[in-house]
Design brief:
Blueprint (H helix, E strand, L loop, with lengths): L1 E17 L7 E19 L3 E17 L2 H4 L14 E14 L1
Antiparallel strand pairs: 1-2, 2-3, 3-4
Length: 99
Amino acid sequence: MGVAIYGNGGLNTSYKQPIQLLGSTRGGVDIDQVFISPTFSYKAGAHNYFGVAANIAVQRFAAEGLQYIEAISSDPTHVTNNGYSYSSGAGVRVGWLAS
């Protein structure tokens, strides 16, 4: 049994000047992610190994300076300059190793 906890961060941009094709204010994006994966494995006989892991993820995302994209969006009030949006998810990974 074990657990892995890891993250992705620093996936961001920040511009001091507006990006003329995208908007009229200074632009940038930021995304942070955290993953938690508790794992269980089992040795079945001399040559077979089975494992199962839950994958739990949480992330946040923010975008600024994308006003011109609002014009083509189906939900223009949620495109830019709204702070962070959060999402989460979970899944399962199953594996078998025969040696």
